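Problem: given the chain below (306 residues), write out its structure.
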Amino acid sequence: MPRIEHLASFCKIIELQSFSAAAKEIGVSQSALSQQMKSLEAGYKTQLLHRKGNKIKPTENGRHIYNYAQEMVALYDRSIREVDTRSNNLEGELLVGASSGPAEFPVPLLLGMYKQAHPSISIILKAADSSEVIDRVLHQSLEIGFVGMEQRDSHLTFKPFFEDTMILVVSPDHPFASRRSIRFEEFIDIPLIIQQRGAGITEMFIALLNAQNINLKDLNIVMELGLQDSAKAAAMAGFGGAIISKLGGVSELKNGDLIEIPIEDVDLSRPQYLCFNHRVPLSNLASDFLAFAESQKHDLIQQYLP
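Solution.
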């Protein structure tokens, strides 16, 4: 019978598409990880993984087993959390996900403050777009997530955690940098950089355009670049304006590397959500962190807002 740690390692290899990266994250040698996979394949009597270029991919049978393995590992983790809940211990690993905006601010600061109060715990923050974070919370590879959009799913709960604003930013050399504001009609013609589809801010921006009966293709989109860091870097280099999270641009706005240009008569506010799988009890560690974050978030945001 496959061992749970072998199934967990199998899932990690598929998620990272690499033996070496998975071995490093799990904390075992690459040869030990290879031996685990040989044992797992022997148990299933089939090849589960193969190399495609420089990446490790599951075989067809491997993809099917991966779905079951995720569930089995998640159930094992759930049993650990339930025992932990009963024992009221604040120890172990706090695994948090966040989309690009909250992953820059304020989630890292909240986690750092919490770590100072609990130095013996381990904290890992996984940054991805909102869609990926939500999917990982759903499949229980993340316990909680901070994301920029909601998604309908009977397993998930979304709670507004703090208020953010989408803003248009440009470099200090941009022709509009000295403007106090621009009209929406002017905004439509600006060479614009957006984040990838699936990013919460992009999905919210598209919804805003749709409410104005405007399609994304009607805008002058010059680049669609990954997550927020890429969009900010391109805007600072003068390639166009970018739509970003105001909280995610705190540092650049304070330093004058980016200039915010308000868009007249358009409400760009948006909530940032806490997301968790309500069918799985939160660990004491996650519950305690959320209570801590709730008590600290308002003062922290006010302190760092430009």
